[in-house]
Amino acid sequence: HGKENVDSRHSRGRGGETTRFHTVNVAQPVRFSRKCPTGWHHYEGTASCYRVYLNGENYWDAVQTCQRVNGSLATFTADQELRFILAQEWDLEEKTFVRKDQRRFWVGYQYVITNRNHSLEGHWEVAYKGSSEVFLPPDPIFGTAMSEKENVLCAQLQCFRFPTLWHRGLHSWYAENCYEKSSFLCKRSQTCVDIKDNIVDEGYYFTPKGNDPCLSCTCHNGEPEMCVAALCERPQGCQQYRKDPKECCKFTCLDP
């Protein structure tokens, strides 16, 4: 324990001897506000992180981009998760390939065509067999750039952002040529993020984002666990000082 905020008290024990108690500040529980890297949106219902990439890529390139960040093109487990996605205000600073009030994103489904006779018939499938149990989209709207040689189309989720309809979660599902370029939605498991916004691997020690730079925790299933706190000595010869918010036991002296 450090010497800061130590209160020494005395009481009489058996035989008249003096017993000294030290009351030391105890680290308070910290609310860990970040479970996703910068630029990702966290949803507690699935313990997942989501990010829209607005630079246009075809479906297969989008798949690889998501895999490089330890994720995959998003699939959805329940209506509540989809409503969460529709309610987000995704960053629009980059160039987009669709109108801002009608955004389309590649997501992790494919439409397999089984009959081309009078109308296109087929069914949705999850693009990746390793995906967790998900719901499948309703009948799609078919894109305009289809090739007759293609038997597999890829899913685009279209979100509408008209001011009068935004809060209703209006959306559509498209089955589109997989080689069209589009924005896309990646999904990954929540992760440990340290105080300097670095991603922490499972089982490693780190200082989580929060209010205490002197915490050391272990990353377990994307959560900080088994945390230990250090208490620092106050700086010597300094009456007024400020603690560094990101460095443990680092102070700036404010004396004249």
TrEMBL record:
<protein>
    <submittedName>
        <fullName>IDD protein</fullName>
    </submittedName>
</protein>
<dbReference type="InterPro" id="IPR001304">
    <property type="entry name" value="C-type_lectin-like"/>
</dbReference>
<dbReference type="GO" id="GO:0016020">
    <property type="term" value="C:membrane"/>
</dbReference>
<dbReference type="Pfam" id="PF00059">
    <property type="entry name" value="Lectin_C"/>
</dbReference>
<dbReference type="InterPro" id="IPR001007">
    <property type="entry name" value="VWF_dom"/>
</dbReference>
<dbReference type="InterPro" id="IPR016186">
    <property type="entry name" value="C-type_lectin-like/link_sf"/>
</dbReference>
<feature type="domain" description="C-type lectin">
    <location>
        <begin position="45"/>
        <end position="187"/>
    </location>
</feature>
<dbReference type="InterPro" id="IPR042378">
    <property type="entry name" value="IDD"/>
</dbReference>
<dbReference type="InterPro" id="IPR016187">
    <property type="entry name" value="CTDL_fold"/>
</dbReference>
